[in-house]
UniProtKB/TrEMBL annotation:
Residues 77-107 are annotated as: Disordered. InterPro entries: Anti-sigma-factor_SerPK (IPR050267), HATPase_C_sf (IPR036890), HATPase_dom (IPR003594). Keywords: Kinase, Serine/threonine-protein kinase, Transferase. It comes from the Bacteria. PANTHER family: ANTI-SIGMA-F FACTOR RSBW, ANTI-SIGMA-F FACTOR RSBW-RELATED. This is Regulatory protein. Pfam families: HATPase_c_2. Residues 85-98 have a biased composition (Pro residues). Gene3D superfamilies: Histidine kinase-like ATPase, C-terminal domain. Residues 6-133 form the Histidine kinase/HSP90-like ATPase domain.
Length: 148
């Protein structure tokens, strides 16, 4: 298990992504493997959301990675102190409008849903929430292919 708190800044999100990639490599999910790239993408998107949408001035966000080698699963959890909760695309009351082709944002959770086996939002002790995603990985370090 890897747990670390980061400042709720772009720099903190970048550091979370880099340290997650390093930890995955130490868990024998090497840099550049499909497993590492998939989990790193999920960490990057959830950390960016914590910084951009979950930021509360003066509060950090927390990254927790858990690797269950026997199950072939990496669980990513990002906790922040903002009370707003993202809605999974399938739970939205109406289809969300597609982001404009040249938009710089608006696709993060769609990416997470595409590459993770499953994801969701959970309560946490104290204020805020935890957004989590589970990424299946093979022994070879390759992630399962993107679901279609």
């Amino acid at each position: 298990m890897f747990v670390q708190r980061f400042s709720a800044t772009r720099r903190g999100a970048r550091l979370a992504r880099r340290l997650a990639t390093h930890r995955l490599d130490r868990w024998h999910l090497p840099y550049g493997s499909r497993a590492s790239d998939t989990v790193t993408l999920v960490v990057a998107e959830l950390a960016a959301n914590a910084v951009l949408h979950g930021r509360v001035p003066g509060r950090d966000f927390e990254l927790r990675l858990t690797y269950d080698r026997s199950a072939g699963l990496v669980r990513v959890e990002v906790s922040d102190t903002h009370p707003a909760r993202p809605q999974p695309p399938e739970a939205a009351p109406e289809p969300a409008p597609e982001p404009a082709a040249d938009a710089e944002g608006g696709r993060g959770l769609l990416l997470v849903a595409a590459v993770a086996d499953r994801w969701g939002v959970a309560e946490r002790t104290g204020p805020g929430k935890t957004v989590w995603a589970e990424c299946p990985v093979h022994d070879s370090g390759d992630a399962c292919p993107v679901r279609r």
